[in-house]
Task: inverse folding
């Protein structure tokens, strides 16, 4: 996994702040590959509960993380109760790393 | 320096044009509705015109954000003798100058675009919320464009100095 300990801590802290303590956040995509270089930070937020305004929360988390981590290439997808479970969610959860 | 000023003026004109186009598509797409509903969105997506309007709104929103953030703002900072850095640093500088209210909101708006692509967003409640957010963010973009323009006028970089061009 190509994230620093500090980056992981920031991602977990800000996700909990915006989505709640029980939100699980997975890293997936090229950053889980130790041999790759660069690339976006792809995050999957999984919530086992209903959520209000998920788009606004995702945008806010993305903006905060870009500022904290100091890079623009962050992409976040989410799933919450009552929303469709999509193939990309399965891929992120099965192949990704729980932070 | 003169070339930078000319380029800046050209970019101001481009921003004016892109702002107008964004305002026009907002007018056509949202039809002056103060709040939008799932029923409204379903009706929109049931017609080719509605789908075209959604795509047009998304494209014009993205274009104005790119022109402002990637082109106009860095050149504005350069002409204002402000330090230029990464996109994030430039936005932070703009926030300090009072040109934007919230750097995080600006940065997050790039993520918003992913939610505006109808082909990928099958859940209409997500698309609906994304449209509400994009409508709010459009006002933020247009206000930023106006703030940069007024600041440029104030410090006199909104015109090419004829004396210097001779």
Result:
């Amino acid at each position: 996994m190509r994230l620093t300990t500090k980056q992981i801590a920031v991602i977990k802290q800000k996700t909990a702040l915006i989505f709640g303590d029980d939100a699980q956040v997975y890293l997936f995509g090229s950053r889980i590959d130790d041999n790759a270089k660069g690339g976006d930070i792809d995050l999957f937020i999984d919530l086992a509960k209903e959520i209000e305004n998920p788009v606004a929360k995702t945008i806010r988390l993305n903006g905060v993380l870009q500022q904290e981590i100091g890079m623009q290439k962050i992409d976040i997808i989410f799933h919450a109760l009552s929303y469709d479970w999509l193939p990309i969610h399965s891929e992120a959860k099965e192949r990704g790393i729980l932070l | 320096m003169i070339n930078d000023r000319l380029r800046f003026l050209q970019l101001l004109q481009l921003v004016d044009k892109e702002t107008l186009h964004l305002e026009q598509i907002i007018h056509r797409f949202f039809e002056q509705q103060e709040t939008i509903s799932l029923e409204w969105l379903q009706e929109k997506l049931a017609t080719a015109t509605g789908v075209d309007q959604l795509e047009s709104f998304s494209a014009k929103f993205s274009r104005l954000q790119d022109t402002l953030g990637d082109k106009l703002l860095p050149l504005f900072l350069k002409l204002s003798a402000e330090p230029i850095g990464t996109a994030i640093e430039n936005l932070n500088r703009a926030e300090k100058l009072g040109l934007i209210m919230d750097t995080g909101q600006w940065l997050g708006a790039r993520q918003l675009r992913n939610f505006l692509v109808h082909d990928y967003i099958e859940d209409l409640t997500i698309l609906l919320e994304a449209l509400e957010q994009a409508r709010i963010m459009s006002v933020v973009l247009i206000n930023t464009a106006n703030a940069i323009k007024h600041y440029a006028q104030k410090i006199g970089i909104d015109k090419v100095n004829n004396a210097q061009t001779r």
